[in-house]
Design goal:
Number of strands: 14
Shape: globular
Strand order of the largest sheet: 6-5-4-3-2-1-14
Largest sheet: 7 strands, mixed
Order of helices and strands: EEEHEHHEHEEEEEHEHHHEHEE
Radius of gyration: 17 Å
Distance between the termini: 5 Å
Bound molecules: zinc ion
Oligomer: single chain
Strand content: 25-35%
Length: about 260
């Protein structure tokens, strides 16, 4: 059984917990994808899901932006916790992260096995040194995690084929971004090819990787200023049609409840 929960999503801090229970009843494996939350906040949000910091086996950091890496140093100070990130992410983040034997280098297209969970990172266009997003799977199910990507690409759509669930960035509504208070340079960056996905771009990507076995799509990394949950959901539902896939939103402060794939 594979399940996941967002502990928070968006520019104020991202963290997604993925948990796999082996069929033989052995101890579950838990991987945290990104940790942009301060330690106390992370501990509180884990506690509401019945877990402690010590229950996490490894952290995968997608890229060096503070909303993804800001809480990793505090986690890494706890001995023995493996942290995975691309070489480019490590190079940019070393000022923030300790040089520890638990630092591991993740590479585009190379599977990483952590207990019962296999991570498959893939490269994405985003304004960071070497950003990776990923799928997480156990022996039966697969979750695709995709936040912080400027535009959908064929490679990304290919990497997400056949997933049972997707945590998918729906960052902004283009009209709200254009009419909003952000400075012009920031609007260009967000809407650019290495920025963030507009609702329509997320819908197009979803249209390219939807299939009958896709059971859940979670809208993620929504901009508080430039999007509304109902707009993001409407775009995703439009792409899904009537095939019964459930949709929900990962909230900035609350994340989302556990979603179980069994
Ligand atoms: Zn981000
Ligand atoms: Zn980013």
């Amino acid at each position: 059984m594979l399940r996941f929960t967002s502990l928070g999503s968006g520019s104020s801090g991202n963290a997604t917990l993925v948990e796999a229970h082996p069929l033989d009843g052995a101890r579950p494996t838990r991987v945290l994808v990104d940790c942009g939350l301060p330690p106390r906040q992370l501990a509180t949000r884990l506690a509401t899901r019945g877990l402690l910091l010590t229950d996490i086996d490894a952290v995968f950091v997608t890229h060096e932006h503070t909303d993804h890496v800001g809480g990793v140093l505090a986690l890494q100070r706890r001995g023995g916790l493996a942290v995975w990130a691309s070489a480019g992410t490590w190079a940019r983040a070393t000022a923030k992260l300790q040089d520890a034997p638990t630092c591991h280098v993740a590479r585009d297209g190379e599977a990483i096995v952590i207990g019962s969970i296999t991570l498959r990172p893939f490269a994405v266009p985003h304004d960071a040194a070497e950003p990776l997003q990923l799928t997480c799977s156990d022996s039966q199910h697969r979750l695709g995690i995709l936040t912080d990507i400027g535009e959908p690409t064929d490679t990304v759509a290919q990497a997400l084929q056949g997933c049972d669930a997707l945590l998918l960035e729906t960052n902004h509504d283009p009209d709200m971004l254009a009419a909003g208070a952000y400075p012009v340079w920031l609007k260009r960056r967000i809407a650019g090819q290495r920025g963030h996905l507009a609702n329509g771009q997320s819908a197009a990507l979803l249209g390219a990787c939807r299939h009958a076995g896709l059971r859940h799509v979670v809208a993620a990394h929504l901009s508080r200023q430039n999007n509304r949950p109902e707009l993001a959901l409407a775009a995703l539902r439009g792409a899904l049609g009537t095939n019964g896939t459930q949709t929900s939103v990962a909230d900035a402060a609350e994340g989302c409840a556990w979603i179980t794939l069994d």
